[in-house]
Amino acid sequence: MAKPVTSFTCSACGASHRKWAGRCEACGEWNSIVEEAPLSQGPGRGLGAQRGRTIPLSGLSSTEPPPPRTPSGIAELDRVLGGGLVPGSAILVGGDPGIGKSTLMLQAAAAFARAGSNAVYVSGEEAGAQLRMRAQRLGLADAPVRLGTETALRDILTTLDAERPDVAVIDSIQTLWSDTVEAAPGSVGQVRAAAHELVTFAKRSGVAVIIVGHVTKDGQIAGPRVVEHMVDTVLYFEGERGHQFRILRAVKNRFGPSGEIGVFEMTGGGLAEVANPSALFLSERGEPVAGSAVFAGIEGTRPVLTEIQALVAPSTLAAPRRTVVGLDSGRVSTILAVLEARCAIPFAGLDVFLNVAGGMRVAEPAADLAIAAALLSAREDHALPADTVLFGEISLSGALRPVGQAENRLKEARKLGFSRAILPEVQKVEGGGGMVLSRTADLTSFTGETFGAG
Asked: In degrees rounded to 5, what are phi and psi of residue 351?
């Protein structure tokens, strides 16, 4: 084992010396040089003997003001960002191909520019003529956004360092390449290097950098997962191709609540904001039909009502089909198992199809009761009342567990004309928003009271 290397440092001026001496040659102080142990003695070279500077530390009761925010004027985007764009922040936006990421980012850059911010849009995928054609189609040709088309990371950073805009959009990170990495653009090494340089530039210069990223077939942002850890905010742009609705969801946000969503509608003139998504998701709901249940959910800080649709039909296959869209298929399988084991309601030999209307994705456990109600309604061919909403988590024992923010759920339901809610018996609710509350202890009593089954 190699002998640890020690260093000698002047306690007066901090100068480093190879060996001890009575007098510091840097400041001339006598008997100020002391021996210091190296920072690292592990395998390999480690940090070696050289010591760094001491960083300032502060207490938890610091009076430092919160970071300033720059609103874009697009209310749904500002909601997801936590109130606006923070200078020096790095934001990663991912989504399926053709979902509208470039359209959203061009509209956002135009909104920031029109609000007085200096906005730069750099594209590595499209030519300048294509971007101008899109801007004309969206009615943004008069926005003071400066466009650039480049894929060389060194040239992009040099330009941004010279211009120092308030916000810079990079579309997309998979097209960038660094001349210090011997790999093709889009590879893991290139994506990691580009993300590191862009995030470092944002922190050093105070420029808010918005990075667009592609996603894999599993819906995750392509490239190393470390990119999501490096940035401050990770946004996913979601939506079904057959629906006009688009959901911008914050899965990570260091400057605001995670899980917040913004709802947009894709139109011929670009993405339009949806101020009341609950009314829009329920707009096509007509007369009560079997297999339909309305779930009062919470997305971030916003209550959202969605319709869960189910279809149960006899199967001709040895293994019946289980098709789920917009819900966790594992959660649905668990609810089916609980219905069979605790309520003696079999689904063997039956095909089950579940869908969330409008292209919405629901991952909240509070949707369990609404999923069970839709399944039972479809199986028994018994429609639920049109003025009823449901929420509650189902445990493996069949008991119904309480969920959070019940008052906000009921308030949103009442605002949209619902007058009755079915919820767990142990759910604590202050008031009720003028709604009739039907409490049930477990899934067995719910099926018996509502459908006469079990």
From this structure: -80, 140
166 belongs to an annotated ligand binding site: no
The answer to the question of whether 98 is labelled as a binding residue is: yes
Query: Read out DSSP for 109-161?
Result: HHHHHHTT--EEEEESSS-HHHHHHHHHHTT-TTS-PEEEE--BHHHHHHHHH
56 is in an annotated binding site: no
389 confidence band (pLDDT: 50, 70, 90): very high
Cβ atoms of 450 and 376 within 8 Å: the answer is yes
Given its phi and psi angles, is residue 231 left (phi above 0), alpha (psi -120 to 50 degrees) or beta? beta
Strands 208-214, 90-95: pairing kind:
parallel
For the chain, percent of residues with pLDDT exceeding 70: 92
Residue 101 assigned ligand-binding role: yes
In the structure encoding, which two tokens stand for residue 292, read together? 């339909």
Q: Is 95 annotated as a binding residue?
A: yes
pLDDT of 1 reads 46
Neighbours of 252 (CB within 10 A): 16
Q: Does 359 or 308 have the greater pLDDT score?
A: 308
* Residue 44 annotated as lining a ligand binding site: no
Q: Three-class SS of residue 324?
A: strand
Q: Per the structure block, which two tokens stand in for 388?
A: 């009823």
Q: Quote the DSSP letter at residue 215.
A: B
Q: For strand 245-253 and strand 233-238, is the pairing parallel, antiparallel, or unpaired? A: antiparallel
Question: 242 among the known binding-site residues?
Answer: no
Please indicate if the annotation marks 100 as binding a ligand.
yes
